[in-house]
Specification:
The chain is an all-alpha fold. The chain has 16 helices and two strands. α5 packs across α7.
Length: about 375
């Protein structure tokens, strides 16, 4: 047993929540961002501004009725499986031969996983990466052994679990979406608070939303919760962090506040209460829906991806004839839910807690 432990340690195969629950999940979100999300954004820009080279078909796969054509954005989105797999492999410190072998593994797992493909890739990529690391550089024919083991282990595992995992993820996502439509007030609170908290924790709210396919009204509640955390922390900590902190948290990530939350968990109350208010307002009053890429639901104001996702959904709905047009009420709702209300509510709640002594001077100070 000691020899096995030493072997695993030498191979950097470490079974911890930090490695798989935080590092790998965060990497999954980065892989999603660089493929699916960027592809969606490029397609939206091309369509809305009539940019020819973004709308032009650059690759056609197949022939006849089964041919599939891709624009630049479409091709980027199609690479979501390999993108996630490589990102996870990088986070797990895979040697180059293992890392590159994850490309076909990610593609296969995403295709086999169906609607829940990203979550399937997450599990399959971890197994394939660790198997590849165990055999890497252990033989004189490493150039053959490592990629063969990685690919066979990954695609074999995907063949066993990708479809069930994908179906389960899709079922959970469908249930959340169904429940939000059925009970928009209570589910608006629940989804907004949970996804918002996940965004600030050192895990990936974007990966969770993508894995569950969280779109529609539930996606709108998720956007509200994420914006409440990011904008809330950015505004309520302005006196300590000034403009640099405003941008870092408001357009970057509220995760920067985690060290301060550990020191004083009460600083988390204002943005979380704000999300509990903006969530049901998004679902019940403004009927804010995320019908763009599901990953956008968990991005909040990070690079304004959440807002771009909502806008993309509007454009898609108009093109499909589901929505007659983008109205002033749509824009007002988006601005209020994503920016104005989180800033105002979090500031009010923060001032109350400051007066009570629950939040002290420099409790929200960032090391920028």
């Amino acid at each position: 047993m000691d020899k096995l432990k030493k072997f695993f340690l030498r191979k950097d195969v470490v079974f911890t929540m930090q490695r798989y629950g935080i590092d790998a999940l965060g990497a999954m979100a980065q892989g999603l961002f660089c493929t699916l999300l960027v592809g969606t954004i490029l397609n939206t820009i091309g369509q809305q501004f009539g940019i020819a080279f973004l709308n032009q078909v650059i690759v056609t796969i197949g022939s006849g009725e089964g041919a599939v054509s891709y624009t630049i954005g479409g091709l980027a989105s199609a690479m979501v499986g390999p993108g996630i797999a490589i990102a996870i492999g990088f986070a797990l410190h895979c040697p180059p031969m293992v890392l590159f072998s994850l490309i076909p593994v990610g593609f296969a797992a995403n295709a086999m996983g169906g609607a829940g493909g990203p979550l399937s890739v997450y599990f399959v990529a971890i197994v394939a990466a660790e198997c590849g690391k165990l055999v890497s550089k252990e033989t004189r024919i490493d150039i053959l052994v490592t990629p063969i083991v990685t690919i066979l282990a990954g695609i074999g595992f995907a063949w066993l679990v990708a479809a069930p995992i994908g179906a389960a993820a899709a079922a959970v996502g469908d249930f959340v979406k169904w429940a939000t439509v059925l009970q928009p007030f209570f589910m608006g609170i629940l989804v907004s608070v949970v996804i918002g908290v996940a965004l600030t924790l050192p895990i990936s709210s974007a990966a969770i939303c993508a894995a569950l396919g969280l779109t529609g009204l539930a996606g709108g509640a998720a956007v509200a919760g994420c914006c409440a955390q990011m904008v809330g922390f950015a505004v309520m900590s302005f006196r300590e962090n000034r403009w640099g902190g405003l941008v870092a948290q408001g357009v970057g990530t509220s995760m920067l506040q985690m060290p301060n939350i550990v020191k004083n968990p009460r600083i988390w109350i204002p943005p979380t209460l704000a999300s509990a208010i903006t969530g049901p307002l998004a679902t019940c009053l403004f009927h804010l829906e995320m019908n763009g890429a599901a990953v956008s639901s968990g991005m909040g104001t990070c690079g304004f991806v959440g807002q771009i996702g909502v806008y993309t959904g509007w454009v898609n709905d108009v093109a499909a004839g589901v929505k007659t047009g983008i109205t002033a009420v749509d824009w007002i709702g988006l601005v209020l839910i994503c920016f104005v209300l989180p800033a105002v509510l979090s500031t009010i709640f923060c001032q109350i807690l400051r007066k009570w002594g629950w939040i002290q001077e420099n409790d929200l100070k960032l090391d920028l």
